[in-house]
Design a protein that fits this description.
alpha/beta; Molybdenum Cofactor Biosythetic Enzyme, Chain A; Maf protein; Alpha-Beta Plaits
């Protein structure tokens, strides 16, 4: 017996396997089928070789409830999907008269119509999925308690047939009903800590998954009950704070970019220990020139003084890694630039350079409005050099976001991360 609502995707095409064209379907089909209540157990890319296709389809028949194939429905000799599916189903191919009539109207030349005739051939007992954007009909049917659905390869034809024909049908037969997925981004939270929290806030009616990105952990909560997902999400917000838990798959630079764009504001950066990482993240985004004025990397004490004007006495008395130096960096940066806001960071990323009073991971972050006072806070970030730098950049942009929103006091207080 097949497992309930499990699905295998079979992407057919020699040009996909050889890298001549990129696969355009895996992400789309995987997401939509998951939302329709199917768990994807395997995704296979195979060439237009009958023996390989037959072997993979026979293997997929065991332990699954749905197989979706893409490609191999054209008129050429290497388009063999319909033949192989008919063979493993133990049924002949039949000419669908309605599809054949459409082809003859489409190809006014009888010889061209005859060449394309095989596209109207459907395995006996299968239901036609009409192709309103091309010539090759899709089809779906049952083989030993398992459903097979076959879609054409060209993107415009595949997407239209999938969304208009196949997906509504699958949602009707999916016994679990429509699954909802809530996607979120967790900032300055380790994947293991987030996993532990998800185990505690989600019950047996929810599934979750996590994926680590350079600036965050992306997580998904899935359930047939949307309200249940929202409750789980709210519990995470309560536990970690709203600045660290966000809905949607968005980087912190994307979030800040959108808020700056909406408010028609700009910012600049003065970076020491991050070495220009904040500027990089912002300029990775198309259109960043609308919100990012520019930045300055002031790694040495001399650079802090000569490039942005930090008083040498402050550096000598308080140290390069201090609240006073960070505040001067953001104040001077705001004054020298034409930006509405300035952010500044100075710290010890390691692995050397730390002391008893200022161990590796000590960072000061300062954010300042052009005509305001700087908000300067100390942090201690755990991890290696790369992790400390990335955590610093994330926290800086979170504080900038607070400043953009006009908050005088940020609820996200300094802590150990």
């Amino acid at each position: 017996m097949p497992y309930k609502n499990t699905c295998v995707l079979v992407l057919i095409g020699s040009e996909i396997v050889t890298g001549e064209i990129g696969d355009q379907y895996q992400k789309l089909l995987g997401r939509e089928l998951t939302n329709a209540g199917f768990s994807i157990t395997k995704i296979i890319q195979i060439p237009d070789i009958g023996e390989i296709l037959e072997k993979e389809l026979v293997n997929a028949l065991n332990g699954n409830s749905l197989i979706v194939t893409t490609g191999g429905l054209g008129p050429t000799t290497d388009d063999i999907t319909r033949e192989i599916i008919a063979e493993i189903s133990g049924v002949p191919l039949r000419l669908d008269e309605k599809e054949w009539s459409k082809l003859k109207k489409r190809f006014w030349d009888p010889q061209l119509a005859e060449i394309n005739k095989k596209q109207a051939m459907i395995p006996e007992g299968f239901t036609v999925l009409e192709n309103e954007h091309g010539t090759a009909a899709g089809f779906t049917g049952m083989v030993n308690n398992l459903r097979i659905a076959s879609l054409p390869g060209p993107p415009s034809e595949l997407k239209a047939m999938f969304f208009e024909k196949l997906l509504p049908f699958l949602k009707e037969i999916s016994h679990t009903g429509l699954r909802h997925r809530t996607t979120g981004s967790a900032f300055l939270i380790s994947e293991s800590l987030l996993e532990q929290a998800l185990q505690e806030v989600c019950d047996e009616n929810c599934k979750w998954s996590t994926r680590l990105e350079p600036d965050r952990v992306i997580f998904n909560i899935e359930s047939t009950d949307l309200s249940l997902q929202q409750k789980c999400f709210q519990k995470l917000e309560t536990r970690f704070g709203k600045p660290r838990i966000r809905q949607y798959n968005k980087s912190i630079s994307e979030i800040v970019f959108e808020k700056l764009l909406q408010s028609k504001k700009t910012f600049c950066s003065v970076e020491s220990c991050t070495g220009g990482l904040i500027g990089k993240w912002m300029t990775d985004l198309p259109g960043s020139s609308e919100v990012y004025w520019g930045g300055c990397i002031v790694y040495s004490n001399d650079a802090k003084n000569r490039l942005v004007g930090v008083d040498q006495k402050i550096i000598a008395e308080k140290g390069a890694v201090s609240g006073e130096t960070a505040s001067e960096m953001s104040l001077k940066g705001a004054g020298l630039s034409k930006a509405d806001f300035c952010v500044a960071v100075t710290g010890i990323a390691g692995p050397s350079g730390g002391s008893k009073d200022k161990p590796v991971g000590t960072v000061w972050i300062s954010v300042c409005a052009r005509d305001g006072k700087p908000l300067t806070l100390p942090y201690f970030f755990k991890g290696n050099r790369d992790i400390v730098r990335r955590k610093t950049a994330v926290m800086t942009l979170i504080l900038l976001e607070s400043l953009i929103e006009g908050k005088k006091e940020h609820s996200f207080l300094p802590d150990n991360f």
